[in-house]
Amino acid sequence: MSNRAVLEVIALDAQDAVAAQTGGADRLELVTDMAADGLTPSTAGFTAIRRAVDIPLRVMLRLADGFAAGDIDALVARAAELREAGADEFVLGFLTADGEPDLVAVERLVAVLDGAQWTFHRAIDRAADRDGLRKRLADLPGLDTYLTAGAAGGVDDGLPVLEAEAARTGEPGYEPQILVGGGLRLDHLPRLRAAGLTAFHIGGAARPDGWSGPVSADAVRAWREAIDA
Questions:
Q1: Residue ranges covered by each domain of the chain
Q2: Which residue of 64, 89, 111, 199 lies most exposed, with the fewest beta carbons within 10 A?
Q3: What span, in angstroms and rounded, lies between the C-alpha atoms of 118 and 143?
Q4: For 185, which DSSP code?
Q5: Is 88 helix (H, G, I), strand (E, B) or coil?
Q6: What's the maximum distance between 2 C-alpha atoms anywhere in the chain?
Q7: What φ, ψ does residue 161 adopt, rounded to 5°?
Q8: For 84-104, how does the pLDDT look when each residue is reduced to its tens digit (9 = 90+)?
């Protein structure tokens, strides 16, 4: 990947993936069932998308809505199957009932990922202690990104947190890249870019007709141009 700012787009299928790549996406997050906020796609779905595009793919590891790990044995089995099928980047993140990182679940998945790069997703925005979560996960292999809006309510609420965390880049626990997503709008970009943030994640913003419609290459291109401006 080049040194330009990263644009990651959610893709549900190969059609989405091709449109996102055409519009200038650098990477895709692969999910299914957005009614449940994005679950693990089938291995066949991953394979079809992998054949359709040549940009990096990060595959969601989550079997049910929310931030609890649920059936971790089943999820580990799915992760192993996807890894065998060629998936080499992932998205995951689980909390305990009291908002602490679920290290048992995360470490079991990281073990089966066997060195693959991965994003800790927006569970960080629901954590009881964001700083503590980062420090507890700091030594896990493969963790290179946090997907975050800065707050559970979205980027509007989280802008000050995102700016503060960007200023701590390189400190223990703050080495992973901040990938901004969750209610992200084009008008947020100037402030985020001024703070030094260099990675952005969109889902519904790439779909003019909503989640019932496909990704639009033109919509992705508008984001690409705005990020690069």
A1: 6-228
A2: 111
A3: 5
A4: -
A5: coil
A6: 45
A7: -65, -45
A8: 999 999 999 999 999 999 999
DSSP of 105-145 = HHHHHHHHHTT-EEEE-GGGGG-S-HHHHHHHHTTSTTEEE
CATH for 6-228? 3.20.20.380
pLDDT tens for 36-53 read: 899 999 999 999 999 999
CA 193 to chain centre: 19
Q: What is each CA distance from 213 to 17, 19, 28, 44, 87, in whole angstroms?
A: 13, 12, 17, 21, 26
Helix residue ranges, H only, the chain: 14-23, 43-52, 72-84, 103-113, 130-137, 155-166, 189-194, 217-228
CB 95 within 8 A of CB 121: no
Length of the chain: 229
Q: How far is CA 214 from CA 18, 130, 211, 222, in A?
A: 11, 34, 7, 16
Look-up: residue for tokens 């040194």?
3
Q: Which amino acid is at 126?
A: R
Distance CA 57, CA 88 (A): 8
pTM here is 0.96
Q: State the Cα–Cα distance between residues 12 and 31, nearest whole angstrom.
A: 6
CA dist., res. 80 & res. 48, Å (int)? 18
Pairwise CA distance, residues 179 & 182, whole Å: 10
pLDDT at residue number 3: 73
CA distance 134 to 219: 33
